[in-house]
Amino acid sequence: MGIVVQKYGGSSLSDAASVKRVARRIVQAKKAGHDVVVVVSAMGDTTDDLIDLAEQVSPRPPAREMDMLLTAGERISMAVVSMAINDLGFSARSFTGSQAGVITDAVHGKAKIIDVTPGRIVSAIDEGHIVIVAGFQGVSGDTKEITTLGRGGSDTTAVALAAALRADVCEIYTDVDGVFSADPRIVPAARKLDRVSYEEMLEMAASGAKILHLRCVEYARRYDIPIHVRSSFSTLEGTWVIDPADTKEEDMEHAIIAGVAHDRSEAKITVVGVPDKVGEAARIFETLAGVEVNIDMVVQNISAAATGLTDISFTLPRADGQTAMGALARLQEEIGYEKLLFDDQVGKVSLIGAGMRSHPGITAKFFSALASAGVNIGMISTSEIRISVIVDENQVEAAVQAAHTAFDLDATEVEAVVYGGTGR
Ligand code: ASP
Ligand code: MG
């Protein structure tokens, strides 16, 4: 039998008892005859606690030191999980991201994996060990500095290792039974999806569904690694994230809409009174790219003929708000816009489904469901298989519930069990 990569999230590793429980589960896979490589996240809320600690110590901690601090969380997990496995009579070896050969670019706090050279892992497997790897971290090939992959990045570590090791499957163990049609904390009638395509999962992750890290899904699609998202608290079959072309037609009976995702992590910036000339938008977004800010939605109004001025609004991660505002403020003289507006009381609600391509009327139905729920739409963006709207932050829940019901996604029996985690 081949290699299985398993990843355990922080909520599955909240204390000593759960570390031992996870160790038993890992050993089961080994006993079943697999070579097992395990990626672990930091225990419980450790990462958040470390961030809080840094904030108390320093108002603007250097990004390099922040990465040194945060990678400690995963190192604790890898060592204790390894100890617990050894107590069960199996030999385990833990490795940091750097030791495991996770090579990244040099961007602290949101590094991208550029290569995986898992020589030490392969040797450890050959020697019969269970391998435990600290997730969410790597080492820059250029600067040799330790980096982190961004919040939730352990998923990406797991899939990257699965690809490099040509594993049969990457199992992502979490505190819910799989991927749901909406966040069960908001929609109790959300249903578990048995299968979801890479492209739908990509859109869901990009739209704020926190179940999988976006780059992990990109990686899995590129290398065709099947992901099995499942609970570490039950033995139920979870959700398979796969390429529909790899399964038999009858297995992939597909709903038009896979689910409704929401995101409260964005903010909106409006550049008011931009001269409507060639090159101004390019200049604004080049500036934002220059300070590593990722833009999501963009809307440019038609300029008023009388003034020749237009407004450009866009959304971005809330955490990058001050960086972006600072960079744009320095452009004011050069571009001659009137002012900047910043709004962080917004939320994004997205409807996702591959069936949208071939079914007309989805947009109309979505918008009328929002209207009936009294939700006002601020911005709209679409892809082939997604419609997203920006709404007032305190209308997010109403919008998600309305869309979920309108598209008949509500399960008749409550399926979602949230086993652990604090939802932090
Ligand atoms: N511990 C990191 C975080 O909380 C990485 C992860 O859990 O995947 O974001
Ligand atoms: Mg996670």
TrEMBL record:
Catalytic activity, EC: 2.7.2.4
Catalytic activity line of the entry: L-aspartate + ATP = 4-phospho-L-aspartate + ADP
Coiled coil: none
UniProt pathway annotation: Amino-acid biosynthesis; L-lysine biosynthesis via DAP pathway; (S)-tetrahydrodipicolinate from L-aspartate: step 1/4; Amino-acid biosynthesis; L-methionine biosynthesis via de novo pathway; L-homoserine from L-aspartate: step 1/3; Amino-acid biosynthesis; L-threonine biosynthesis; L-threonine from L-aspartate: step 1/5
SUPFAM superfamilies noted in UniProt: ACT-like (SSF55021), Carbamate kinase-like (SSF53633)
A Pfam family assignment: ACT_9
Keywords, comma-separated and alphabetical: Amino-acid biosynthesis, ATP-binding, Diaminopimelate biosynthesis, Kinase, Lysine biosynthesis, Nucleotide-binding, Transferase
GO molecular function: kinase activity
Stored PROSITE patterns: ACT, ASPARTOKINASE
Domain ACT intervals: 269-354
Primary role: Catalyzes the phosphorylation of the beta-carboxyl group of aspartic acid with ATP to yield 4-phospho-L-aspartate, which is involved in the branched biosynthetic pathway leading to the biosynthesis of amino acids lysine, threonine, isoleucine and methionine.
Family, as annotated: Belongs to the aspartokinase family.
Protein name per the record: Aspartokinase
Species, as recorded: Nocardioides fonticola
